[in-house]
Amino acid sequence: QPNFTIKDEL
Amino acid sequence: MNIFRLSGDVCHLVAIIILFLKIWRSKSCAGISGKSQLLFALVFTTRYLDLFTAFISIYNTVMKVVFLVLAYATVSLIYFRFRKSYDSESDSFRVEFLLVPVAGLSFLENYSFTPLEILWTFSIYLESVAILPQLFMITKTGEAESITTHYLFFLGLYRTLYLANWVWRYHEEGFFDQIAVVSGVVQTIFYCDFFYLYFTRVLRGSGKMTLP
């Protein structure tokens, strides 16, 4: 699973 | 950050500004789907809830605020200030056919069953279909002003550049966000037909894009 806690994309 | 994502964000901003200025300067929202703009405002609202809880960078925060402000400003132009020019007859796409499946899917397919994550997932799925009322309206009226097609071009280009950004990030960082990528591909596919018409009609200098 990706590091989905940090949403760094708009 | 990479050039694909940065240029994608710039295209997104350009698209939103083109639309806002078109409505503001022509004092009319003829040919514009208010429903799509409402859906985009909902996309930004449900996606940027972490505006106050997670600080990523100045750029991230500023762009989120700008997108939110412009989205709501555009919606208010359409439904309030220039509502007399709003063609609700042609803007007849049944958005509930989008919202219900998207909401259902975001509960079924997400990374974690928490409110923030489900709302983010909802915004990702919704964004991939949010332009459909606008594209439907164009097929219904059979034409679109060239400025509207430029708006759609940059809007379609932005997610296409994000696909390149995801390829790059997978290659460079091993980053892979399946939900965002799958939705982004679906979203870009919806623009393919428009891109074909844009390159064959609008850029040939025929000004207005009239559908066959």
Note poorly predicted spans of chain B. Answer: none
Mean pLDDT of chain A: 69
- Largest sheet of chain A, described in full? none
Largest interface, per-chain counts?
A: A-B, 9 and 23 residues
Structural class of chain B: mainly alpha
Please give the count of helices of chain A: 0
Strand tally of chain B is 2
Q: What is the global morphology of chain A?
A: elongated
DSSP E strands of chain A, number? 0
Helical segment tally of chain B? 8
What this model shows, in words?
The complex is a heterodimer of chains A (10) and B (212). With 10 residues, chain A is mostly loops. Chain B is an all-alpha fold and 212 residues long. Chain B has helices at 3-26, 34-47, 58-81, 96-108, 115-129, 132-141, 146-173, 178-200, and strands at residues 143-144, 209-210. Chain B has a two-stranded antiparallel sheet with strand order 1-2. Chain B is globular, with a radius of gyration of 17 Å. The termini of chain B are far apart. Classes of the chains: A little secondary structure (10), B mainly alpha (212). At the A-B interface, loops of A face helix 1 and helix 3 of B.
Quickly describe the structure.
With 10 residues, chain A is low in regular secondary structure. Chain A contains no helices and no strands.
Per-chain topology:
The complex is a heterodimer of chains A (10) and B (212).
Chain A: no helix or strand
Chain B: H1 3-26, H2 34-47, H3 58-81, H4 96-108, H5 115-129, H6 132-141, E1 143-144, H7 146-173, H8 178-200, E2 209-210
Antiparallel strand pairs in B: 1-2
Helix pairs in contact in B: 1-3, 1-7, 2-3, 2-5, 4-5, 5-8, 7-8
